[in-house]
Specification:
The structure is a homodimer.
Chain A lengths: L2 E9 L4 H9 L10 E4 L4 E4 L2 H16 L5 E9 L22 H11 L9 E11 L4 H13 L4 E5 L2 E7 H14 L6 E10 L6
Antiparallel strand pairs in A: 1-3, 1-4, 2-3, 4-8, 5-7, 5-8, 6-7
Helix pairs in contact in A: 1-2, 2-5, 3-4, 3-5
GO molecular function (chains A, B): thiamine binding
Organism (chains A, B): Rubricella aquisinus
Protein name (chains A, B): Thiamin/hydroxymethyl pyrimidine-binding YkoF putative domain-containing protein
């Protein structure tokens, strides 16, 4: 299995370079569990979902803590048939394919029952894509049902769903959406935007 | 059919609000062919691909013309089974499902043979997702073959492909990737990032 994310931080300030560089320090505790490569557009993080999502949360929280309007954007993927197996991605966090969707929804809710609180608000918007075998819309609707019970559901928009709340529960909820829906050996991706300190909300 | 995009501009400058507002003027010539709604995270643009992509190109070119480091990010979608049919999305730009992939690649190449030149460089990175029936990896590999012949192909990365060149051919190539691959009545999405004036490239 191969899993990971292409991640970018967009600080809306003249000092964007220093916000990006100082925020990346939040990844240091995770570096031995991730493979990280950076270019001018994004940073690749390769690793299992249970490492990726907390690492993304810490990156976002560090950036949000600067007080600047900053957006974290990423493309998450697991199980892409075009990518090689990678031992660093080994995970036990994916759903059991024999379980019906209702059981997976319950597991997802239990997993987010006691999330880390970070003190930083996250306004997130994301789309979940499930490719290959199976009824992808059934899984997506099952995921949306879970999101509505997650405690961070804000609203549905065209093409995506909004979550709002402390970054802890928001990223925990995103992790469950990524892990509990779609086949464990399927090709699942998320297109994610998380905004902090937007002046539009003041 | 329903088609559209959730679009955001991220100008990396203290004056981000004025860059966003001045750039949005580039959409004025397209407004009668699009339905546009804005919130604090993104702007929804609903309309057919042959309007969406030139409108996105003009928005990007206007923002890039400020000289600031600015990123346009969008989630494009067509044929999502969860969205209602909308007359504004009526299009004749989608591939004929009876045509083999090689014929669609040729059509895509012919469509980008004489693109508009804008004078602004675009560094783009995107993922194409095809859901529902059919062999989605075959279509994706067919699209990547087309991209390699497009004249703006830069390189493949994990989870995505990079295009570089004048914004005219780059957005024309993206439009063909969106229209010629996957079934016309299928559910096709693109996760797109386009960067201008990055200091990392200086």
């Amino acid at each position: 299995m191969f899993a990971g994310a292409q991640v970018s931080l967009y600080p809306m300030t003249d000092g964007f370079v220093s916000v990006i560089l100082s925020s990346l320090k939040a990844l240091d505790p995770w570096r031995d569990q991730l493979r990280i490569e950076t270019d001018d557009i994004s940073t690749l993080m390769v690793g299992p979902p249970e490492v990726l999502f907390p690492a993304l949360r810490d990156l976002f929280v560090q950036a949000a803590g600067t007080g600047e309007h900053v957006v974290l954007r990423c493309t998450l993927s697991r199980g892409c048939p075009g990518e090689p197996d990678d031992p660093i991605c080994q995970t036990s966090s994916l759903a059991n394919p024999d379980e019906p969707i209702a059981a997976r929804q319950q597991k997802a809710l239990m997993a987010i029952a006691d999330p880390v609180e970070t003190g930083e608000r996250a306004d997130a918007q994301f789309s979940l894509y499930l490719m290959g075998a199976g009824d992808h819309m059934l899984e997506i609707m099952g995921c949306i049902d879970f999101l509505k019970q997650s405690g961070t559901f804000d609203r549905s928009k065209n093409f995506c769903t909004r979550l709002t709340g402390d970054a802890g529960p928001v990223f925990a909820t995103l992790q469950q959406a990524f892990c509990q829906f779609g086949a464990p050996n399927g090709h699942v991706t998320i297109d994610l935007t998380v905004s902090a300190n937007s002046p539009s909300l003041r």
